[in-house]
Amino acid sequence: MAIERTLSIIKPNAVAKDAIGAILSRFEAAGLKIVAARMLHMSKEQASAFYAVHQGKGFFDELVGFMSSGPVMVQVLEGEGAIAKNREIMGATNPAEAAPGTIRADFADSFTENAAHGSDSPENAAVEIQFFFPEGVCERTR
Ligand code: UDP
């Protein structure tokens, strides 16, 4: 399988419960390397732009309000099949359907406040990485 990069966000509810370390540990334990990271508090405008694909949907305003309600931790994860691997570690979008032991099963508070984001395709990963890290990411040689 190819080495991929994916954009990961630890959402405001998981930051608020001090789960950053626990969540990053799960990525590293699964062989996903952190090649970029930053913490920021998104404005409503930034959150709307990031989730533009969902504009007009019933949950959009709640999602944008939540994502701009507090700081998020954003990172780029690199590894074999990183996009699918990250989504497997996160669990299903609806935490009620997330498998036991996944990030969303363990740290979500609701469908909207589901603790983590992960890119769902190579195309979206490229766009999302550029959104938060226009300066590029680190080379990990070891
Ligand atoms: N979301 C929501 N209600 C829904 C569907 C999605 O609140 O009915 C939120 C949830 O936080 C989700 C985000 O919108 O993570 C983006 O939805 P998407 O379908 O892209 O799921 P994801 O790729 O995050 O699993």
From TrEMBL:
Naturally occurring in which organism (per UniProt): Thiorhodococcus minor
Domain Nucleoside diphosphate kinase-like: start-end pairs: 3-139
Active site location: H117
Cofactor needs: Mg(2+)
Family annotation (Pfam families): NDK
Alphabetized GO MF terms: ATP binding; metal ion binding; nucleoside diphosphate kinase activity
Record PANTHER family: NUCLEOSIDE DIPHOSPHATE KINASE (PTHR46161), NUCLEOSIDE DIPHOSPHATE KINASE DDB_G0292928-RELATED (PTHR46161:SF3)
Keywords: ATP-binding, Cytoplasm, Kinase, Magnesium, Metal-binding, Nucleotide metabolism, Nucleotide-binding, Phosphoprotein, Transferase
Subunit structure: Homotetramer.
Catalyzed chemical reaction(s): a ribonucleoside 5'-diphosphate + ATP = a ribonucleoside 5'-triphosphate + ADP; a 2'-deoxyribonucleoside 5'-diphosphate + ATP = a 2'-deoxyribonucleoside 5'-triphosphate + ADP
Protein origin, superkingdom: Bacteria
UniProt cross-references to CDD domains, sorted A to Z: NDPk_I (cd04413)
Protein function: Major role in the synthesis of nucleoside triphosphates other than ATP. The ATP gamma phosphate is transferred to the NDP beta phosphate via a ping-pong mechanism, using a phosphorylated active-site intermediate.
Keyword Cell division attached: no
Family that this chain belongs to: Belongs to the NDK family.
SMART domains membership: NDK (SM00562)
EC number: 2.7.4.6
Cellular component GO terms held in the UniProt record: cytoplasm
Subcellular location: Cytoplasm
Listed InterPro entries: NDK-like_dom (IPR034907), NDK-like_dom_sf (IPR036850), Nucleoside_diP_kinase (IPR001564), Nucleoside_diP_kinase_AS (IPR023005)
Gene name of the encoded protein: ndk
UniProt name for this protein: Nucleoside diphosphate kinase
